Amino acid sequence: MQSASDRHEYPAHWEADVVLRDGGAARVRPITVDDAERLVSFYEQVSDESKYYRFFAPYPRLSAKDVHRFTHHDFVDRVGLAATVGGEFIATVRYDRIGADGMAASAPADEAEVAFLVQDAHQGRGVASALLEHIAAVARERGIRRFAAEVLPANNKMIKVFTDAGYTQKRSFEDGVVRLEFDLEPTERSLAVQRAREQRAEAHSVRRLLTPGSVAVVGVGRAPGGVGRSVLGNLREAGFTGRLHAVNQAFPEDLKELDGVPAHRSVRDIAEPVDLAVVAVRAEHVPAAVAECGEHGVQGLVVLSSGYAESGPDGRERQRELVRHARAYGMRIIGPNAFGVINTSPQVRLNASLAPEMPRPGRIGLFAQSGAIGIALLSRLHRRGGGVTGVTGVSTFVSSGNRADVSGNDVLQYWYDDPDTDVALMYLESIGNPRKFTRLARRTAAAKPLVVVQGAGSAPQGHAVRATRLPHATVSALLRQAGVIRVDTITELVDAGLLLARQPLPTGPRVAILGNSESLGLLTYDACLSEGLRPLPPLDLTTEARAEDFHAALAHALADDTCDAVVVTAIPAIGETSPGDAELAQALRSAAAAAPAKPVLVVHVELGGLAAALSAAASTAPRGESTSRARAAAQDAGPPQPPVEAPEGAHLIPAYPAAERAVRALAEAVKYAQWRREAADPGKVPEHEDIDERGAAALIDGLLARGQGLTLGAEETAELLGRYGVPVRRAAPAPGPDEAARAAAALGYPVALKATAPHLRHRADLGGVRLDLADEEQLRRAYAELTELFGRPQELRPVVQAMAPRGVDTVVRAVIDPAAGAVLSFGLAGAASQLLGDMAHRLIPVTDRDATSLIRSIRTAPLLFGWRGSTPVDTRALEELLLRVSRLVDDHPEVVAVTLEPVVVAPHGLSVLGASVRLAPPPARDDLGPRTLPVY
Questions:
Q1: Alpha carbon of 849 to those of 439, 479, 508, 823, 842: distances in Å?
Q2: Residues 820, 826, 832, 834, Cα dihedral to 10°
Q3: What is the pLDDT of residues 464-484, one digit of tens each?
Q4: What percent of the chain has pLDDT over 70?
Q5: What angle do helix axes 408-416 and 434-445 make, rounded to 10 degrees?
Q6: Best-predicted range by mean pLDDT (158-172, 446-460, 539-553, 634-648)
Q7: In terms of C-beta density within 10 A (0-12 exposed, 13-18 middle, 19 or more buried), how is residue 772 classed?
């Protein structure tokens, strides 16, 4: 369809799928000579008023000359883009490069006139704003730095598009026309505007999938059983509040109804709009179903069908075509190979999934890429409803299957401002865009807890996403920095979610422990110590404790200012004075409700009816089944107790079958609460007046002129780092003993003699480093010993360096990862970082608070602060170094790797003894470009 231009080949990389303000998708692509008929058809559907605003005069139709001009572009000085849905234009934008006189020009002129035209039926959808982002990115690529636009004063919508974009601009009024001029360089405000629009659009696109007014199930079998018939039954039994339609091309023509639902042979036969289609047909029949849905105006698809990327190369191509096909009609997809979606809101009651039962409504949002994990999550919450206190139900559930389109990022955008979701639980097999996920997670975690299990797998089959080179542990550390509660198992995911959904965040790590079992109390105490909490001595109420004893003890603990949370331990007891399960549950709930500012957890051991009574008000199972399960559990535990449901709105307490599980969940809540407090004041990136940013830029440009990527030599490394106030101690090459002696004389004794061969570098334990050589005699003797032990000087590459003050050896690294972005890492040099992996990580740019916490985040940090009576080292100087390295990499993305090792931190000051820097053209920053959906 596309043709080559007269000056440049068709720029296929400008093509993009975008999400519009209302959640629909559109395709943005360059306009070519093949688009003449589409352009004329598009123009005919534009109102006379919109044409007048575009051309400043009545302009009923395009002339042949106009059509030629608007479809023939050189993709450099003249560029046109179109937004399309269903292959037809819904909006266009173009720029023409102009010179200082306002006439057509070529480079080096860096200004262009820009103009839009949006079909009236699509105005208000944010099409022009999306096109402005894309045409601005194209212009920057072609060396254009500024746009000018002339708009009639009455055209308020278009003026608002320009003024709301966030670019630095000038505005003037002359000859009855508003002239706007704005720079195209992204600003903090323009990025903030772009990301706010992205959030609204992506959240709305998910909302359309989760809150449909009508649903068509495509592939409903006539006989009971089968995926389509099961989903239809699940929708009906859940009480879906909208309209349902059953679709199967094999239905007899006279079949009008199936299971009380209108039956149709095709989506086209449905006489009303359809918001969501659940596709459950064989993969080879999906394209026809997608076409029917697109032509009917369906807003979104849940594709349960398998046979896509999970099945091999042919399936991967089939999956890519499915996404392209659906997006061409403006539809988004959950799936393929999905388990489905659930929305428990009473206004929706949507169970478009293979889950046979609707979870109880609640405040937890669930996302899983894997259908099997999705089943496990729902099942665990279902089981915990009968056996754990304080369980809350589910707000929404999404199982994305192959995640070909809608991803965890999209769902996170939806949950961010969803009033029905208080806690988000996610199982992610991979993170396709760590940079974006981290940004979204940080924003979401500042408002509500986000708990994540991150698998160590690769991207889902069929994804052509940029892979991260960072180790799994590093990505996990960066997620924690963003406020994500990172856990390792599905069990821990549910444990943490249950606590966070119904209990307040603890204000600190102090934990009171009370209960009727001394042994269980001690186990809980030890678990608290292991998780870094500060437990108070356990209070043993003895096995004779009654319900009022538990109530009094819990009330007293909650009133104690020396504790921030309470863990109640309880075991079944037999005796006339022992409280019944319902009685004890009521006692704990009433005490906790009187002091709602502190979290309370229960550790129970086979409590049966107690657990059921405590959780009765919040079971994820249907109420009838929850009651029957509770009754059965009570019978198993001992003499039957009548199940007592908590009143509506009762204070719900999470309970756990093991002390370590309860304490681990509490420890995660403590760390998250601490992050929330610190996130309120993230710190700042300090300004350093002695940094020579321009000089460093000139040096980098000169060095890169030699080639695409290079590791700098010692002198070049020292010069570049020096421009950022990072001095590197000079190491003089010593190819022979005489050269070593001359270097030592120039540097001044005492000196160090080091072998810098790769297998000996930074390995003092192997004897490749000799320190405190006080004179030439000692230096020559050390030189002879090194060469005798390890070989010729040519193999050792020895250097001489002036001695630095004694201190703690550390290592500082910075790297630009193509997926995660720039990362700063810190640890102690040697075995701590190399063998134990004891490194801490922060995303660049690093603030002063980040630098402070980075140093204290490693397990071996006590060595820096006077461990066992040693002298504390100068951590302020270390923080300063970290901030300067961060600034270097942030200011100059061409610096793709920096290593400072060792950095000897002394009681006063520090010394950088070794450094390496690598330069290369920086990887593309997809987070700074226009909004786009991933292309697979």
A1: 18, 17, 19, 16, 11
A2: 50
A3: 555 566 777 788 888 888 899
A4: 89
A5: 20
A6: 539-553
A7: exposed
pLDDT one-digit tens code per residue, 282-321? 999 999 999 999 999 999 999 999 999 988 899 999 999 9
pLDDT of residue 577: 53
Q: What is the DSSP letter of 651?
A: P
* Tokens coding 764: 């003092």
Backbone conformation region of residue 373, classed left if phi is above 0, alpha if psi is from -120 to 50, else beta: alpha
What six digits make up the tokens of 85?
Answer: 């849905």
User: What's the rounded Cα separation, in Å, for the pair 662 and 527?
Assistant: 9
- 903 phi and psi angles, rounded to 5 deg: -110, 110
Q: Distance between CA 384 and CA 499 in Å, rounded?
A: 12
Sign (positive or negative) of CA dihedral 853, 859, 861, 866: positive
CA pair distance 877, 906, nearest whole angstrom: 9
Neighbours of 357 (CB within 10 A): 15
User: Rounded CA gap, 672 and 670, in Å?
Assistant: 5
Beta strands in 766-820 (DSSP E): 769-773, 798-802, 808-817
Cβ-contact 881, 726 below 8 angstroms: yes
For residue 738, what is the DSSP state?
H
Q: Which residues contact 225 (CB under 8 A, 6 or more apart)?
A: none
E-strand stretches of 583-716: 600-604, 655-656, 710-711
DSSP per residue over 92-136, as a string? EEEEEEE-TTSSB--TT--EEEEEEEE-GGGTTSSHHHHHHHHHH
How does pLDDT run across 812-847, given as a tens digit for each residue? 999 988 777 889 999 998 877 777 888 999 988 999
Distance separating alpha carbons of residues 243 and 234, to the nearest angstrom: 14
Among 585, 538, 574, 543, which Cα is nearest to 388's?
585
Asked whether residue 349 carries a pLDDT value surpassing 60, the answer given is: yes
Each residue of 869-920: pLDDT tens digit?
889 999 999 999 999 999 999 999 999 999 999 999 999 999 999 999 999 9
What tokens were used for 137?
Answer: 């990115």
